[in-house]
Design goal:
This protein has about 230 residues and is an alpha+beta fold. The chain has one domain: Deoxyuridine triphosphatase (dUTPase) (Deoxyuridine 5'-Triphosphate Nucleotidohydrolase, Chain A, Distorted Sandwich). It is built from four helices and 16 strands. It has helices at about 25-30, 55-60, 200-210, 215-220, and strands at about 5-10, 20, 40, 45, 65, 70-75, 80-85, 90-95, 115-120, 120-125, 130-135, 145, 150, 160-165, 170-175, 180-185. The strands form five sheets. A five-stranded antiparallel beta sheet has the order 2-5-16-11-13, with no helix packed on it. Strands 8-9-14-12 form a four-stranded antiparallel beta sheet, with no helix packed on it. A hairpin with a 2-residue loop joins strand 6 and strand 7 (about 80-85). The chain is globular and about 55 Å long. The two termini are about 15 Å apart.
């Protein structure tokens, strides 16, 4: 039976929470599967681009996304970003740095911490939690969010705040519809780690099988389809 993630909106007209698969970026769609459009450059050398990597695509398409509901303009004034937006509710707030002195700042980003306002509430089935993070592999976006895990068996997360940093010196428009966070529900389970000395042999044998075909072994034999409707 398909598990269900439920959400509520604090304003009826806000965009729905949707599968992040609907927000695959154009740069990914435009990428050719092969470098220089040639599967084989020379003997024993397969010339794949990142588009041939299923784990990379899984990161782009797993879970759900919150979309920015209004255009946000960013301009610089005295070396600090100034935000304005087309319509409410307000998408951004400011967070004091008083309690964040030891928080590492991502390289290339302004040290001041901002927050995306979160006018939603989310609930997942018993035994599940949510990984909330910056949209994975979306380094093209002019901001970067922090990562958290939220237990959502009761209607939590909203209204709330999601911290982010803006790229140093960035000026421009962050368009309405931009994914501002990725939400991935997962089952809470207890784990332990142990060494298995037989795994190396298993891995070498598998690699030989994968190397025998130009492309597609992982997708056909290992990859599992994931759906977030």
């Amino acid at each position: 039976m398909r598990k269900k993630i439920e959400f509520g909106k604090f304003e009826d007209w806000l965009p729905n929470i949707v599968g992040i698969k609907s927000k695959i970026p154009q740069w990914y769609k435009d990428q050719d599967m092969w470098n220089n459009k040639q599967p084989l450059q020379k003997s024993y050398q397969v010339s794949k681009s990142f588009k041939a990597c299923m784990p990379f695509l899984d990161a782009l398409t797993t879970g759900y996304t919150i979309q920015l509901w209004t255009d946000v303009r960013v301009r610089q004034e005295n070396g600090q970003p100034i935000f304005t937006w087309a319509s409410g509710p307000d998408p951004i707030d400011f967070r004091s740095n008083d309690g964040n002195q030891n928080l590492p700042i991502p390289a290339g980003f302004n040290s001041r911490q901002f927050v995306w306002k979160f006018p939603y509430t989310i609930k997942v089935p018993k035994g599940y939690s949510c990984l909330v993070t910056h949209p994975m592999n979306r380094h093209d976006l002019p901001f970067i969010g922090l990562t958290a895990i939220s237990d959502n068996e009761v209607a939590t997360l909203g209204p709330g705040n999601y911290p982010f940093f803006i790229k140093e010196g960035f000026e421009g428009i962050i368009p309405e519809g931009t994914p501002i966070m990725q939400v991935i529900p997962f089952k809470r389970e207890n784990w332990k780690v142990e060494e298995n000395k037989e795994l190396l042999k298993e891995s070498v044998n598998l690699q030989r099988k994968m190397n025998a075909v130009i492309s597609g072994y992982y997708k056909k034999n290992i990859w599992k389809k994931k759906e977030y409707l």
